[in-house]
Amino acid sequence: MFTFIDENGCQVELSFEENQFTVEPKHVLVMVHYQGKWLCAINKKRGVEFPGGKVEPGETLFEAAIREVYEETSVHITNLKWFADYLVHGDVPFCKSVFTGKVERIDPFVEEHETIGMIWLTTEELLNHPTLSFYMKDAGMKKMLQEVKQHERQW
């Protein structure tokens, strides 16, 4: 278990073992590494971030992850794997499941209501991008980037 304080001052617990929290995940985040770069969405309000969002009624976490990546970036993904969960202890605690996926196909981008496009960044570019979303700057994100590289070798 990795614990840190996020950019909003909330305590966050990050686990790379499934089912470690009593709060059910209702949000997803997807880390896609392709040709040496990370897929990021450009959120109109928050800036550059990994694609993700809320699970819709009747939808599984896997279905939400695939849908959110496509809606935010026009990238179709496959080979989705659960990677981590993190629990944010805010006024209302919430849990987010993190997945990894492989690029299946890239369609031309059609602007959605939240994003204005997508961008592919190397790890160094990602860590130093000037318009990163608040959650992309915290210690948990750096830990996930370290861990996903180790897991990619095993996959």
From TrEMBL:
Keywords: Hydrolase. One of its GO terms (molecular function) is hydrolase activity. InterPro entries: Nudix_hydrolase, NUDIX_hydrolase-like_dom_sf, NUDIX_hydrolase_dom, Nudix_YtkD. Pfam families: NUDIX (PF00293). It comes from the Bacteria. Gene3D superfamilies: Nucleoside Triphosphate Pyrophosphohydrolase. Residues 1-144 form the Nudix hydrolase domain. Belongs to the Nudix hydrolase family. This is 8-oxo-dGTP diphosphatase. It comes from Ureibacillus acetophenoni.
